[in-house]
Automatic annotation (TrEMBL):
This is Uncharacterized protein. InterPro entries: PspAB-like. The lineage of its organism: Archaea, Methanobacteriati, Methanobacteriota, Stenosarchaea group, Halobacteria. It comes from Halodesulfurarchaeum formicicum.
């Protein structure tokens, strides 16, 4: 099974059929308080960039919705809406404060949902970086499952399972963490040291 097919299976129809509850963009605000625990208990600082990935449509109305998303993300900091090598679209934002970053990714997701494209939303990806040494980690929110899961890449196609389990055990009361690890889909960066949305 190829990367693209696995992505479609885990974020697509199977995840939708196996959904434990409806996804809600409001869930993203759980990360605001959780970022304090990530810093104090796990020594990870929230990053200043996050991404929202969704499946685009070739329609005039959807292109209008994309323009609305771009308008939401304009302003302070940096933003981009672009397609990746797998044909998925990323809305990416960089902000000075993590609360503002979460809020802007939420508004981008909510904008698509309000325009009737909530079913096109796949995931929101938030970066955390170690305060001293080590690898970056991510908290990913699956819109198809309505839950978060940790992702700790340790190389171009390797992940640190032990670190992910530790993140889950510490953060389980802070976030709605996905219990079924088969849905902890890895969003591999294209190259070492880069992010999934690059």
């Amino acid at each position: 099974m190829g990367l693209f097919d696995r992505f479609r299976r885990l974020f697509g129809s199977q995840a939708e059929a196996d959904a434990t509850r409806d996804a809600d963009p409001d869930d993203l605000f759980q990360l605001t308080a959780a970022s304090v625990t990530m810093t104090v208990d796990l020594d990870y600082e929230p990053g200043d960039t996050a991404g929202l990935v969704f499946s685009a449509m070739d329609s005039t109305d959807f292109q209008g919705a994309l323009r609305d998303v771009e308008a939401v993300l304009e302003g302070s900091g940096w933003s981009s809406v672009h397609e990746d090598d797998h044909g998925y679209t990323w809305a990416v934002a960089t902000r000075d404060g993590f609360e503002e970053l979460v809020a802007d990714i939420y508004v981008a997701a909510d904008t698509l949902a309000d325009r009737g494209y909530g079913d096109r939303l796949l995931a929101a990806v938030f970066h955390f970086e170690p305060q001293s040494s080590g690898q970056d980690v991510y908290w990913i929110y699956s819109f198809r499952r309505g839950s978060f899961y940790p992702f700790a890449p340790s190389g171009p196609s390797a992940r640190d399972d032990a670190r992910e389990v530790k993140l889950q055990s510490v953060m389980d009361e802070e976030l709605d963490v996905e219990e079924d690890t088969q849905y902890w889909y890895p969003l591999w960066p294209d190259r070492r040291g880069s992010h999934p949305w690059e």
